[in-house]
């Protein structure tokens, strides 16, 4: 797949003293998630008069913003998350980056922000990966997590859409999101707090959604769960998604059920890819409302066989236990089910270029 050619010129100021090979290799042995950052970052600015201007790739460093900046007070900010993988033949592969570029446009619209043209988004991602290519490790389970983000930076306390914006991309070497876990995770079904409601920002990837989820995430942690599972805001009945991932259920008769995109759930790119792969594997897909009551019945009757979380960070992670105030459901004896494992392996093999990419999802970054 080829990206359209961006007419945009990036000024490139290479880091004068990037991390030594030895120190970088040390980090890449055990990067965790989101703890370390590569040598460079992208910055592009926007104002009403100039549009997008001053695109630069330079060393990773703190940003200087006014204490009155709109982002600090009114959270006018959006972000994306995608990964670059090292293939066995040395190529660096991006997974569906144009889908992230498109979702970034949608998020910007919802938060009354200017749209970053997709070709600029893609070019910026590509250029950062190229300059920091040594940070894309070939260790199994390793990737370079790319975090594009944009925020309103107007220096005015009145509540208003900012008249100035900054777009950045930073990159962070990553391994599995859920470390130190068994093959399955436990999730906390939250009944007091919701993540997003009708007409709200649930479908946008904006920081406010995550801020609203943190108190429930604390409940999850206190109950020894690694993620929170949200119900809908109106009836507190319908399963929506996890704090940072979508959720899928595999039923006895090869049916994959996942909550429909109802205007409050983030349209995960991994979710979309899995639905396609599952369909190609012969599963029947049901995107529909699925209630917690139905889930409990399905567990009791053994109709529900497997549950998994899916997202860029988590890839596909089996859920073995769903805890809630009055009890818990155990799924597949807390093991990773056959279909979950098959989908996981297939997705990772496509992302890493080990098998044919029939859907045209993978883009190889030109490195020279
Ligand atoms: C709330 C939420 N839902 C779902 C997802 C999964 O989206 P994707 O597969 O595009 O990473 C994410 C992660 O980005 C998320 O934060």
UniProtKB/TrEMBL annotation:
One Pfam family hit? Aminotran_4
Cofactor section: pyridoxal 5'-phosphate
EC numbers for this chain: 2.6.1.42
Which InterPro entries does the record match to this protein?
A: Aminotrans_IV, Aminotransferase-like, B_amino_transII, BCAT-like_C, BCAT-like_N, BCAT_family
Q: Which domain of life is it from?
A: Bacteria
Return the SUPFAM superfamilies for the record: D-aminoacid aminotransferase-like PLP-dependent enzymes
Q: Does the keyword Transferase apply?
A: yes
Name listed for the protein in its UniProt record:
Probable branched-chain-amino-acid aminotransferase
């Amino acid at each position: 797949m080829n990206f359209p050619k961006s007419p945009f010129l990036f000024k490139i100021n290479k880091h004068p003293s990037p991390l030594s090979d030895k120190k970088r290799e040390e980090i890449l042995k055990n990067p965790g998630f989101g703890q370390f950052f590569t040598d460079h970052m992208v910055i592009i600015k926007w104002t009403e008069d100039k549009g997008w201007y001053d695109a630069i790739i330079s060393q990773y460093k703190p940003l200087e913003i006014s204490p009155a900046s709109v982002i600090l007070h009114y959270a006018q900010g959006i972000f994306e998350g995608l990964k670059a993988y090292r293939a066995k033949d040395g190529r660096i592969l991006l997974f569906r980056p144009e889908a992230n570029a498109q979702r970034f446009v949608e998020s910007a619209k919802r938060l009354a922000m200017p749209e970053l043209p997709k070709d600029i988004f893609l070019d910026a991602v590509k250029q950062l990966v190229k300059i920091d290519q040594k940070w894309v490790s070939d260790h199994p389970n390793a990737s370079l997590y790319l975090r594009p983000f944009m925020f309103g930076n107007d220096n005015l306390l009145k509540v208003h859409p900012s008249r100035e914006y900054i777009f950045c991309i930073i990159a962070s070497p990553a391994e599995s999101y859920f470390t130190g876990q068994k093959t399955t995770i436990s999730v906390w079904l939250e009944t007091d707090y919701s993540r997003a409601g009708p007409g709200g920002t649930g479908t946008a990837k904006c920081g406010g959604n995550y801020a609203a989820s943190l108190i429930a995430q604390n409940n999850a942690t206190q109950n020894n769960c690694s993620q929170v599972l949200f119900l809908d805001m109106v009836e507190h009945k319908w399963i929506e998604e996890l704090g940072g991932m979508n959720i899928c259920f595999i039923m006895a008769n090869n049916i994959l059920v996942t909550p429909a995109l109802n205007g409050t759930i983030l349209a995960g790119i991994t979710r979309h890819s899995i639905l396609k792969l599952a369909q190609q594997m012969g599963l029947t897909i049901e995107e529909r409302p699925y209630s917690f009551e139905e889930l409990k019945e399905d567990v009791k009757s053994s109709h529900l066989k497997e549950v998994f979380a899916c997202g860029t960070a988590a890839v596909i992670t089996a859920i073995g236990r769903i805890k809630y105030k009055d009890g818990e459901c155990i799924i597949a004896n807390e093991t990773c089910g056959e279909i979950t494992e098959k989908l996981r392996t297939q997705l990772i093999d496509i992302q890493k270029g080990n098998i044919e990419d029939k859907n045209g999802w993978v883009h190889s970054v030109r490195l020279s």
